[in-house]
């Protein structure tokens, strides 16, 4: 055990007992324009509920207006339209979430903690003018087919004889032989053909350069531009993933940042953005072994693109508990046991310093005390608790990776909105 970091935790950690204690982080955020909120897994209730409380406070007290999450743009747009009241549908928030998030892993966003936040956002927005409403947007890159369909459907209604629709049809025809299988497209474009690079690039360029005559208060122009951006970057991502994990990772995280920047361009440079994503995306990659592999991430890029005082990154972690995950990609979700953190890890140090929930803030007064490299747990949607010591710990310089860390000693699995496919 690192005695220096152990003593530093004991000295600088503050107890986290209720949402009121988040004041510690809010004071440090100051006038930042980007607040990045991580999580050590995609299936832990406390990570969602605490981020939700922070998000509400950032909206109410700091003027944040954009929530950008590690989710698909088309799915999140359904939620955005719901919270902003663009449609008068009478469905409840849980029905809307289950309808929007059908792609595995559905539990990431169709869960009770998110339902509570979305319900709060809708109510908050009802009392606001159009330009003051809070938005909920997906920044991930996976929705290649869905984004193309969104573009096609919109253009058929608004520009039935337009140039953009013609370009969209060419892109659609190019992808059609792969029958919505990203695996087939990835292998074919990597080894047997040039793929659909030209088609998606031309479509994106055209949509970006042609002003929409029918742009309105429902963000249709933004929706078109981001869907076209997703289409271009998703094509690049899937074409690359069979040849290089690190390059495809970089494409994905650069897309997330590009989407965040597009949102700020749309809403103005003074708009403030809250990002929800896994610690591996928001915790600065230069403070981990990711840099040795040539891998970058959202936290690193956002820091590099902006002033130091404009970016604030919060990591989350736990010592033990339960989590929703699956044994293999696409299989049924399960409630799994998260074993005690391995000896000498960041989570173990936090536990040994006191088996209680706590917040550690890293600033110019103490950051130098958290410079030692330690293992930091990361749990994905695919998880094997019995083997986690072999691959679930990222060597990290915690004081450089984050600006603050929220530690919950024992955590609970989140509750998916549908219990049909959960093994408990």
UniProtKB/TrEMBL annotation:
GO biological process, one term: response to antibiotic
InterPro entries: Emycin_Estase, Hydrolase/PRTase-associated, UCP036794_erythomycin
A Pfam cross-reference name: Erythro_esteras
Coiled coil: none
Domain of life where this protein originates: Bacteria
SUPFAM superfamilies according to UniProt: EreA/ChaN-like (SSF159501)
Name under which the protein is recorded: Erythromycin esterase-like protein
């Amino acid at each position: 055990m690192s005695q220096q970091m152990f003593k530093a935790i004991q000295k600088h950690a503050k107890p986290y007992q209720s949402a009121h204690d988040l004041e510690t982080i809010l004071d440090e955020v100051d006038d930042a324009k980007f607040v990045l909120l991580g999580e050590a897994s995609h299936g832990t209730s406390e990570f969602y509920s605490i981020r939700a409380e922070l998000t509400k406070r950032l909206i109410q007290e700091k003027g944040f207006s954009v929530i950008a999450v590690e989710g698909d743009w088309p799915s999140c747009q359904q939620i955005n339209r719901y919270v902003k009241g663009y449609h008068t549908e009478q469905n409840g928030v849980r029905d809307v979430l289950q309808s929007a998030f059908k792609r595995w892993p559905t539990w990431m966003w169709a869960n009770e903690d998110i339902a509570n936040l979305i319900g709060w956002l809708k109510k908050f927005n009802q009392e606001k003018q159009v330009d003051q409403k809070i938005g909920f947007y997906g920044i991930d890159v996976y929705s290649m087919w869905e984004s193309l369909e969104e573009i096609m459907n919109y253009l058929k209604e608004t520009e039935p004889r337009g140039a953009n629709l013609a370009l969209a049809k060419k892109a659609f025809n190019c992808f059609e032989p792969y029958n919505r299988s990203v695996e087939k497209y990835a292998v074919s474009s990597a080894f047997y053909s040039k793929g659909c690079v030209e088609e998606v690039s031309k479509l994106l360029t055209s949509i970006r350069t042609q002003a929409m005559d029918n742009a309105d208060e429902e963000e249709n122009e933004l929706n078109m531009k981001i869907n076209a951006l997703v289409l271009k970057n998703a094509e690049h991502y899937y074409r690359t993933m069979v040849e290089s994990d690190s390059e495809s990772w970089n494409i994905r995280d650069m897309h997330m940042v590009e989407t965040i920047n597009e949102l700020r361009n749309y809403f103005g440079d003074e708009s403030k953005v809250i990002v929800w994503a896994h610690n591996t995306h928001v915790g600065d990659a230069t403070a981990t072994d990711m840099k040795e592999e040539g891998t970058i991430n959202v936290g690193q890029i956002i820091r590099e693109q902006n002033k130091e005082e404009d970016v604030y990154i919060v990591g989350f972690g736990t010592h033990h508990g339960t989590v929703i995950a699956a044994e293999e990609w696409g299989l049924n979700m399960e409630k799994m046991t998260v074993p005690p953190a391995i000896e000498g890890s960041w989570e173990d140090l936090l536990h040994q310093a006191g088996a209680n929930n706590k917040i550690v803030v890293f600033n110019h007064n103490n950051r130098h005390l958290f410079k030692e490299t330690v293992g930091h747990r990361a749990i994905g949607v695919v998880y094997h608790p019995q083997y986690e010591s072999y691959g679930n710990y990222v060597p990290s310089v915690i004081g450089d990776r984050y600006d603050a860390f929220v530690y919950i000693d024992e955590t609970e699995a989140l509750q998916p909105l549908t219990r049909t496919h959960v093994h408990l």
